[in-house]
Structure formats: C-alpha cells, structure tokens
Amino acid sequence: MKKKSKKIAKKKSNVGNHDNVLREHLVALLKGGHAHVHFMDAIEGFPDAKRGTFVEGLPHTGWQLLEHSRIAQWDILEFSRDAKHVSPGFPEGYWPRTPGPPDEAAWKKSVQEFQRDLEEMVKLVKNPKTDLYATIPHGDGQTILREALLLADHNAYHLGQLVDLRRALGAWPES
User: Fold this and answer.
1) For 16-40, what is each residue's pLDDT tens digit?
2) How many C-beta atoms surround the C-beta of residue 42 within 10 A?
3) Angstrom distances, CA of residue 167 to CA of 32, 41, 107, 109
4) Nearest to 117 by CA among 60, 155, 156, 62
C-alpha cells in the first residue's frame, strides 16, 4: 500500500504546474515543428523568380501566401494586445494586391515582420502575467489562448500551402 501511495503522490507533483506546461506547448505549436513545418523551412530558398508564379490547381502565389500569413498574424497579435487596434477589411485587407512582390526588399521585409510578430506572440504567451483564459476586454469572447491557437492553426495551414506550391514549382529541397 505504501508504494502505491508514493507513486500517486509523485504523479500529482509532476502535473502540478499546468500553466507552464500549457505555455510550453503553445510556444512549440506557434514556432512549428513536430507535425508542422517551421516558417523558415517553408520560406528559405523560395526562388526569387517564382515568388509571383501561379501553379495550375493552386490558388495563390508564394508572395500572396507569405503576405497573407504576415498580415493575418499581425492582426491576431495586435487584436490580442491592443484595444485600439483596427483590423483590415475582410478579405481584401488580408491579401496583397499583386501576385508577386514589388521587389526583393518587400519580400525580405515581409519575412522579417512575420518573424518579429511571431516572436511577439510567443512572448505574450510565455509571459506569466498573461492570463491565457481571461476574456479579451475589447473582444467578444476571445481569449489569448484562443488567439494563440488560431494563429498556430492559420500559420500551419498556409505554410503547408507554401510547401505544396514549392513542390509544384520544383523548388522544394527534396523535389
């Protein structure tokens, strides 16, 4: 009997800090890996000349997917932390107007802003002062937990599309 009660006590002490465990899982989900591609794995090496190329059967170009992901991520982050944030009009405000980037600088800027905003969401989730379960006061029922999950889900979806596009373009490393 004593051995059994020690095992139970040990199990309880291992799961005592659910909040930290949840935050660690959310950060891992946001950053990618495991079942999802990392952002830079999907972006690095995307051929300059093919960033605005459509492929039959796929609805978007690499530029459109990158910019859409960046804009949506920025919107989710800002909604999560700024009561004065105004979201772009949907759907037109979430997609670039051109199939390709205007220049190399625009592509690089989009990549850098995506990375910066992802890190900002990670910081928000990691911050022990952030109540993941509290309703966002300026929302209509959303929580930081919901927004972090939404962001991870949205990014995983579109990064998967980027991988498919790169494969179809013959630009994926194992193509």
Assistant:
1) 489 999 999 999 999 987 888 899 9
2) 25
3) 19, 13, 20, 24
4) 155
| Tokens (6 digits) for 158 | 């579109």
- The CA dihedral of 51, 53, 59, 65, to the nearest 10 degrees, is 10
Query: Using alpha carbons only, how large is the chain's radius of gyration in Å?
Result: 20
Give the dihedral sign, CA 35/38/44/50.
positive
3-state SS class at 30 = helix
Distance CA 74, CA 71 (A): 5
Distance CA 116, CA 69 (A): 13
Tens of pLDDT, residues 35-84 = 888 999 999 999 999 999 999 999 999 999 999 999 999 999 999 999 99
- CATH H-level, domain 19-168: superfamily: dinb family like domain (1.20.120.450)
Q: What is the pLDDT of residues 123-135, one digit of tens each?
A: 999 999 999 999 9
* Cα-Cα end-to-end distance for the chain: 59
Cβ atoms of residues 144 and 124 within 8 Å: yes
